[in-house]
Amino acid sequence: MKIHILTAAALLLSTSLSQAETVHTKTFVQTQDIEGVNQINFSEFDINEDGLYAKSEVGEKLFYVFDRDNNKVIDNIEWNNRSLYTIIPMEKEVYRFVDYNDDGYTDLSSYNYRAFYQESGLIRFDENKNGLSAAEFIETGFQELDDNDNNIIELDEWKEAYTEMTKPKNAEQERYN
């Protein structure tokens, strides 16, 4: 019964929005402070500022997150310091103002970060559910990424592992990729 009610409510909302004359959306993001943790701001990964993580945005950005000295490679020292960087929960609100008949009056619907995090599919990589670290995301060890055994990870090695890692393994993962 709950599913039918939620489905009906979602259908009603989407029908109402599609019939609306004017729709404005504003997104506000603010990271939560966690003592002793260097933060990666959500907006750094959301290059096109659409409120979603795209593979193309995340993959290369993560490489440069690991590359602390900006020399365009990841060495074993940078890899071992990976736990300093974590995607942490943020206060994220998306406000959608809908003026159904252009009379100047709007209704407001909001969307919080926790709902976004759950729906984005990123939570599947977060093993301990305390925020997603880059190491949890890539799910591969340093030596496995270092294809040419030169003790550094180059961007092409990273991209190869990242592409392989993000391939969906089942139908549920397919919907997130």
In short:
The chain is of the alpha+beta class and 177 residues long. It has one domain.
List keywords for this structure.
177 residues, three-stranded antiparallel β-sheet, 40% helix, disordered N terminus, alpha+beta
Description:
With 177 residues, the chain is of the alpha+beta class. It has one domain (19-174). The protein has nine helices and eight strands. The strands form three sheets. The protein has a three-stranded antiparallel sheet with strand order 1-5-6. Strands 2-4-7 form a three-stranded mixed sheet. A two-stranded antiparallel sheet has the order 3-8. Strand 5 and strand 6 form a beta hairpin.
Helices and strands in order, then pairings?
Elements: H1 2-19, E1 22-31, E2 38-39, H2 42-45, H3 55-66, E3 73-75, H4 76-80, E4 85-87, E5 90-99, E6 107-112, H5 113-120, E7 132-133, H6 134-138, H7 142-145, E8 152-154, H8 155-165, H9 171-174
Parallel strand pairs: 2-4
Antiparallel strand pairs: 1-5, 3-8, 4-7, 5-6
Instruction: Work out the helix count.
Output: 9
Low-confidence stretches: 1-18
Computed structural class:
alpha+beta
| Percent range for β-strand residues | 15-25%
Return the average pLDDT rounded to an integer: 65
**End-to-end separation:** 31 Å
Q: What count of domains describes the coordinates?
A: 1
